[in-house]
Design a protein that fits this description.
This protein is an alpha/beta fold and about 160 residues long. It has one domain: CBS-domain (Roll), CATH 3.10.580.10. It is about 40% helix and about 15% strand. The longest helix is centred in the last third of the chain and has 16 residues. The protein is globular and about 55 Å long.
Amino acid sequence: MTQNELVELTAADMMHPEIVAVDAKDSIAEVERVLVDANISGMPVIAESGQVVGIVSWRDLVAHLSEGPSLSREHREEWYKTQDDDDRYRVTIPEDDTTVAEDLMTPLVHAVPSDMRLPEVARTMTRVGIHRVLVVDSSGTFVGIISTMEFLRAIAGLAEVGAG
């Protein structure tokens, strides 16, 4: 793919249509299991009504399990130092922790229309400071998700084309 082709892509072209999500009432253990099993860093949280009500990520889990909302770099580094290399993507959740997904999630949900061009999607994510954005169709229905990883894959593809 060339750079010109990349900038012509839309959110629908780049999004992941297979949506991995958790229910708002799912336990913290279930959130962690889904993140690990799907090999993802964050996902939508769905209310009983079927509406997306937030996004939950590893960062949210770390903030909760490191005993407080402090997300300073030093605080996160200290928490990660306590994790064994083999368990880098697993966390120990106390058995008595009754936290559920809606307690952990960021309740702000950002969405872009499926026909938005990728440069504008990137500007939106950068301006808001988010790592994933939901994609909605013309009726406002949630149809996919784009993460920063999709952009990295696209740029890596450009590098391969440029190298050849």
